[in-house]
Amino acid sequence: MDTQFSSLEEMWEDRRKTKRSGNSSVLAKVGRSLVPAVSWALWLTHNASIFRGQQRYMENTWGYVVGFMKAWER
Prior knowledge:
α2 crosses α3. The longest helix is centred in the middle third of the chain and has 27 residues, at 26-52. The protein has helices at residues 8-20, 26-52, 58-72. By secondary structure, the protein is mainly alpha-helical.
């Protein structure tokens, strides 16, 4: 996955091109799932911190990301 994007718009355009080209490599699949998984994980850990008073730990966030990626690959 190319990580040399200068903007979020550029990253999403690259994602769309990959999707349109029918690239079904593992890297392309991970690339399409990684941003939504990280975003959702950050949202959940943020809400746990705000509404339940839980500490935010990177391990918790990463655990969510890995769990989402595994669940979504099916």
